[in-house]
Specification:
The protein has about 280 residues and is of the alpha/beta class. It is built from 10 helices and 10 strands. It folds into 3 domains: about 150 residues, 3-Layer(aba) Sandwich (Rossmann fold); about 70 residues, no CATH class; about 35 residues. The longest helix is centred in the last third of the chain and has 30 residues.
């Protein structure tokens, strides 16, 4: 369980990035965080894992108050928070396996990590995770040779290698084409449900958020202006979050996606019927 209570972030310039943000995320729930640029989405994620220190408020993960921890306690707490970045944050010259194993750096000694001598159980887990994300045939390939979708899959495997209690995801689809973006969102939501893992995913793509998230939180000017189920995100609520706009294109895109999915299902059923006749 993640509990955020009255969280605020004020900068020395006088800017208020967050204003009294409060919400809870239970185990297994996938929350999409939406809002215009500058609304505080990335700041909120970075305050939760203390990459940015909040001005006031509390962040509690399974009873541990992250905002009150010292350096050593914070380092230990971050072991339990998997982070997936927009720009992947991989070490380009390292292999896929080495990048995934870097998720264990908080658990092994300096010399073990320096010589890349990880315990056998960590290596076995990394192999299993790479198979789960569809990269079992890319183990020894350098990260620099991967496509954007493959890099993001490595990032997912690396985060899961930590055995996290919370997944924080910052714009995971921003650099991907539409098909790959859906595949990555589907993978993230599937692994969260398999592991009963809560997740907060910052997204600019509203249709993706409505398609895959269990719940949507909308931020505007550092405040929560919507918190509810995807089906409750009406045109009026979108206007509250983003301002006045014609939202019909979003709905048209959703209808097209649903029609496409239905068409694929029909085609698959037809193939099965034809196979049965042979």
């Amino acid at each position: 369980m993640l509990r955020v209570s009255d969280l605020s972030k004020h900068y020395k310039t006088g800017d208020e990035a967050l204003r009294g943000v409060s919400f809870e995320v239970p185990a297994g729930q996938v929350v999409a965080l939406i809002g215009p640029s500058g609304s505080g989405k990335s700041t909120l994620i970075r305050c939760i894992n203390r990459l940015v220190k909040p001005t006031s408020g509390r962040v509690e993960l399974n009873g541990t108050d992250i905002t009150r921890l010292g350096r050593g306690g914070l380092r230990r707490a971050r072991r339990h928070m998997g982070m997936i970045f927009q720009e992947y944050a991989l070490v380009e010259r390292l292999t896929v396996m080495e990048n995934v194993l870097s998720g264990r750096l908080g658990y092994v000694s300096f010399w073990r990590s320096f010589f890349r001598r990880f315990p056998r159980r960590d290596v076995d887990k990394a192999f299993a995770l790479l198979e789960r994300v569809g990269l079992s045939d890319q183990v020894d390939k350098r990260a620099s040779a991967l496509s954007g979708g493959q890099r993001q899959r490595v990032g997912i495997a690396r985060a899961l290698e930590q055995d996290p209690e919370l997944l924080l995801v910052d714009e995971p689809t921003a650099s991907l084409d539409p098909k790959t973006a859906r595949q990555i969102m589907r993978l993230i939501t599937e692994v969260c449900r398999e592991r009963d893992l809560p997740a907060i995913i910052s997204l600019h793509d509203v249709p993706l958020a409505k398609m895959f998230a269990d719940r949507i939180i909308g931020l505007r000017a550092g405040e929560i202006v919507f918190d509810g189920a995807p089906k409750a995100l009406t045109d009026a609520k979108l206007t509250d979050i983003y301002g006045e706009e014609d939202w019909t294109q979003i709905h048209d895109g959703e209808d097209a996606e649903q029609a496409g999915a239905h068409g694929l299902s029909e085609a698959h059923a037809k193939e099965e019927r034809m196979a049965g006749l042979k």
